[in-house]
């Protein structure tokens, strides 16, 4: 299926590019997105360094890390809001630096942010088409094709397995999880190839998180390359194909699913080793017994969570 006749420098058609295709010139796999040793600093703060990851069609790449780990900085580079200042960022095998979110969208990269920009009182279908309304008629007779937009909204939501009785209801009446899902369906409808989800489950309960995780898999199955940002390994592991772990702006690991277990992912994320060390230091320093007990309890909880794979908040 690879376009082996593509001459040097010719643009590779996105639609023809499938998982596992090879660049005809270099005979290396072509990825939807590829970052190599990417770094970014703000003044003298190094927000990100040594980040290497790929995004492929039909695959979910998870980015894990605590607050300040550099997750937002990373997605801002991919979504065209910021530019990296070291390393390379390639889209379909071509090195790029994106100057605006518009450029990212044109390259098929859509981001769904945690604080969704929705107009709560407007119907679901209006939010779905906000800024890209379908019209009918011409000149002074031009008007919004409401029926068509309702129909498309319903169809796209159904295709994602989302069953909403009424697309006329205000989007504000939907749960947080459902709103995320509408945003995902919207990105898919408007042609996204890469879907970035910034902590879509962070503010949700267990059940709602499950709903969003299912739609992440739906998007994957529709052939999108998904970047799923989260600090919860229990959300990442079941849906992810690859895992990038960030800590204080640095990549501390990048794993294929077959090379890591949920326990390892959890303990890396929770910093179990660091906590144990802290408890030890406190003990040496004759720490306050109450504080010590608290840290020890935390260590126990972390290792228990790692061992049983239970949900941690
Ligand atoms: N616009 C900015 N100016 C200066 N420092 C920033 C800016 N954005 C992020 N940082 C710093 O970069 C680091 C990574 O932040 P961020 O990417 O927001 O992490 P995360 O999303 O994982 O919480 C933090 O130390 C943060 O303070
Ligand atoms: Mg962030």
From TrEMBL:
Molecular functions (GO terms): ATP binding; ATP hydrolysis activity
SUPFAM superfamilies: P-loop containing nucleoside triphosphate hydrolases (SSF52540)
Keywords: ATP-binding, Nucleotide-binding, Sugar transport, Transport
InterPro entries: AAA+_ATPase, ABC_carbohydrate_import_ATPase, ABC_transporter-like_ATP-bd, ABC_transporter-like_CS, P-loop_NTPase
Residue ranges of every copy of the ABC transporter domain listed in the record: 33-273
Annotated CDD domains: ABC_Carb_Monos_I
The UniProt record lists the keyword Transport: yes
SMART domains from the UniProt entry: AAA
PROSITE patterns xrefs: ABC_TRANSPORTER_1, ABC_TRANSPORTER_2
Family annotation (Pfam families): ABC_tran
PANTHER family: CARBOHYDRATE TRANSPORT ATP-BINDING PROTEIN MG119-RELATED, SUGAR ABC TRANSPORTER ATP-BINDING PROTEIN
Protein name per its UniProtKB record: Simple sugar transport system ATP-binding protein
Native source species: Paeniglutamicibacter cryotolerans
